[in-house]
Amino acid sequence: MTLTKRIIPLLISALLLSSCTKSDEPAAPAETTTATTLPAETTAAETTTEETKPAVPEGHAYAEFTSGMPDGWECADGWCNGSMFNVTWRKKNITFEDGKMQLKIDHDAVPKDGVPYSGGEFRSRQFYGYGRYEVSMKAIKNDGVVSSLFTYTGPSDNNPWDEIDVEILGKDTTMVQFNYFTNGQGGHEYMHSLGFDASEDFHTYAFEWYEDKIIWYVDGTEVHRAEENIPVTESKIMMNTWCGKGVDGWLNAFDDSKLPLTAEYEWIRFTPFN
Fold it and tell me: Which CATH architecture fits 9-272?
């Protein structure tokens, strides 16, 4: 669900375990975002170079993690959604190692408002609309947790609540759940059998958001579509890991015997429709 984003040999180990932000200064606006590597299908004609790093085309978004926290992205820190979210978002729960981003669920060292656990939420600074959203991720396998990719905007942005979800429930990582909200109206949940265990390896999950439909994909194959009451409001790109409370019928009761729990992300990409 909801609410995120991140040479010298002696510094390599620090980079691999870097915190969510590079410094206390805010990250650069998304317009100046650069990434070290674009996926293979991105052609040289679509990129420019700056110190051999291809630039993200205007209106697109891309994050990969070989250099730690990417520009144009940020981490939620120090607040909780409440309701069924039994975590406080902490930037320390987002790390970068082996060219990947880790979003962790753990005991919170300083519990806030009676919430005993901490989680990681990474998000874009900018808002995006119709286009293709993709992530390469490996989910958490554990009762009571969710690993996700989604778009979201709502009252905190002075907008209607619009959202499109890809959620893997830790109770059964052979399934993925798709859902969406339009002006706060949900109830569009759909469970798809993956044919593999999403906690064992990286797979690509995607959706295409059109004015009149949403189409979801797994590893490039269409698996579901919706064509009624589609969201219209530009949203942030987000991903998070969290444990639930009061939703045992959906997620199963949270098992905290194996904390910390970690989902991993290789890259995230948005490609707008022309």
Answer: Sandwich (2.60)
Its pTM stands at: 0.82
Q: Where are the domains of the chain?
A: 9-272
Summarised one tens digit per residue, pLDDT across range 205-261 is 999 999 999 999 999 999 999 999 999 999 999 999 999 999 999 999 999 999 999
Return the structure tokens found at 258. 């194996």
DSSP result, 82-94: -TTB-EEE-GGGE
Residues 163, 208, 264, 266: which is the catalytic one?
163
Helix %, strand %, coil % of the chain (to 5) = 10, 45, 45
How many CB atoms within 10 Å of residue 150? 26
> Alpha carbon of 15 to those of 67, 92, 182, 212: distances in Å?
7, 14, 40, 43
* Catalytic pick among 167, 208, 264, 266: 167
Region of residue 14 (phi > 0: left; psi between -120 and 50: alpha; otherwise: beta):
alpha
Q: How far apart are CA 116 and CA 113, in angstroms?
A: 9
163 is catalytic: yes
Q: E-strand spans in the chain?
A: 49-50, 53-54, 61-64, 73-75, 87-89, 94-97, 100-112, 115-124, 131-138, 145-153, 162-169, 175-181, 190-193, 203-209, 214-218, 221-226, 236-243, 261-272
